[in-house]
Amino acid sequence: MKNKITIAVAIALMAGLTGCGQSSNSSETSNPKKIEQQINNTVLAKWTGPYSGVPAFDTVKLADLKPAFEIAMAKKLAEVDAIVSNSEPATFENTIVAIERSGADLNRIYTYYGIWRSNKSTAETRAVAGELAPVLSTFYSKINQNKALFNRIKDVFLSDEMNTLRKEQQRMVTEQYQGFVRSGALLNEQDQKRYAEINLELSELHTQFGNNVLADEENYVTYLTKEQLGGLPESVISAAASAASSMGKSGQYAITNTRSSMDPFLTYSTERALREQVWNTYYSRGDNGDEFDNNKIIAEILKLRHERVQLLGYDNYGQWRLENRMAKNPDNAFKLMNAVWPAAIARVEQEVADMQAVANEEGADIKIAPWDYRFYAEKVRKAKYDLDSDEVKQYLQLDNLRDAMFYVAGELFDFKFTAITDNSVPVFDPADVTVWEVTKLSNNEHVGVWYLDPYARKGKRSGAWATTYRSHTSYDGKTNVLASNNSNFIKGEAGKPTLISWSDAETLFHEFGHALHFLASNVEYPSQNGGVRDYTEFQSQLLERWLTTDPVIDNYLVHNKTGKPIPADLVAKIKKAATFNEGFKTTEYLASAIIDLKLHTMDPTGIDIDKFERETLAEMNMPKEMVMRHRTPHFGHVFSGEGYSAGYYGYMWAEVLTSDAAEAFEQAPGGYYDKGMAKKLVDHLFSVRNAVDPAEAYRAFRGRDAKVEALMRDRGFPIPKK
After folding, report:
1. Residue range 239-268: average pLDDT?
2. Which domains does the chain have, with CATH numbers?
3. Would you state the pLDDT for residue 37?
4. C-alpha angle 499/503/509, rounded to 5°?
5. Which of 530, 684, 480, 610 minimizes the C-alpha distance to 54?
6. Is the pLDDT of residue 182 over 80?
């Protein structure tokens, strides 16, 4: 009897898909075999197993992804229909909370979809993603432009009940209302149709952009022979040999087209022609004039984004994007960046002069070029601070750094990480992914599960990121957290530790900060686990500061061969050189952030992307010896989706908060491990997520707003006169 009812429900859900733009016919929806396939769908299945259920990464099938989305979308639409057809007046519970409760199946499906797109991408995956992009866009447009649903949300927003709700509930209603308005809910029928068409086109272009970048990362690998390894330290050679072996090129050495491989090669290789080749390969991703070139795609994305916000009455995309961010408008974001830019490029000029002097002294007979910057910066570092980056790297073992992060999490958050080794939690790559249970140190209360996928491999997008498979909520009973950290470190040879650079160690701590933000959540409703983009990077940036604290240095930075702790004099050199090369780091980042916001605050009609990038950087007096951190044709943060579009400035906005908050810890009696400060950190900056306005949350922690002077002090830049 139960199976017959389930089949009937499945038929109803599949038939409902016709309403959201999907093709359906009676022969398909009444086919018992077809229905049985849907019932046994591995992607749609509820999660089972320990820890309140975990993703079945070991059994899911890509072939089930599209059918799973079809059923889940139809179910979501049915849930929305139930909300709007409710004869009772709209209330917080029967409308806002009901929306929060809808779409549970979709949340599970997106977990698998995210893994297939980011961690385990294949040509087949990309093809499926290309097919799904317009389908999902149409589906979300149908919800966001549902006038009956919006009217119920508006009724709650304008109701007397709003005054009786708790502050975080009022914030949720307001954000729900404004989100619909910002998605076109108030547009007339014709404009709504065009708005949805634009979203559809953009979804396809974003997917194509990301696929093109990944194709260039996979297709361009520089293979070296033993004779071409000049200057490379053992750790880099070992990682390159391991990478080549994994690609079926045993006996050779592979410099892959990712930052974690490119960066150390450019730092140490004495082969200048090869440095130029690797540099060009990396910075030309998406800009090679071939089938994977992104320039025309970017121009079309910008044109469509501009048209879409004009339908809503905004002058430009940046104005629309920043309206609900901490910056509030592009002028405020530009004001911050413009305050830092002159000091950054002035520092680059000093850095280049130092490097050119070294090159001249060595008789190199060259003028510093972009592919020389890291190489000669390393020589200057050694000369000025007697600091060898590779010497430092010998003390930066990935496993030890992970344990250091666990120590920090215990001291600040009362978290304990225990390895899960019984294979009870499936993973998507058994060779690379490891899993830990997270509990409270004080009372052993279960918090969640943490996944770590640290290594680069074919099909994995570049960079580092954090995500959740399930977030904390309490409105329908408390849920635990499934969090994940993902990186692209080059795995050490078998039997040898994976060694990473100081910069990579900072990134590791940064992304773990995001995971702690997920794990520390104490919000009630799902949407409160979101965040304001120019604020959510703050918490993770702040966690980087604990890398240089004494307990971490003294206990976890030990030599990979001798096991001896890092010497005190080497630590002193690291701290003394803390602001070394800050001109390069700040300028490469700011150039990307300024270009991003400029592109999104102009009329992009007829834009030539290459020309715009080149001419704008020249107007900004961008140093010729370096380039943007993310050149426009591979700027995935901005053009493979809309998460950071017109918002890459947010890292610096958050860095102001970071520098200011770090000074609060430094001034506390117990320093970075002060228990009172740690409690304020968790209570006001981590656990509240998006249930509290970010500005209010920061003031509750610090007692005042953050000051930009802290950032300038941090970077060793002169503080501009007011």
Report:
1. 93
2. 2-212 (1.10.1370.40), 220-283 (no CATH), 293-387+577-648 (1.10.1370.10), 398-525 (3.40.390.10)
3. 55
4. 85
5. 480
6. yes
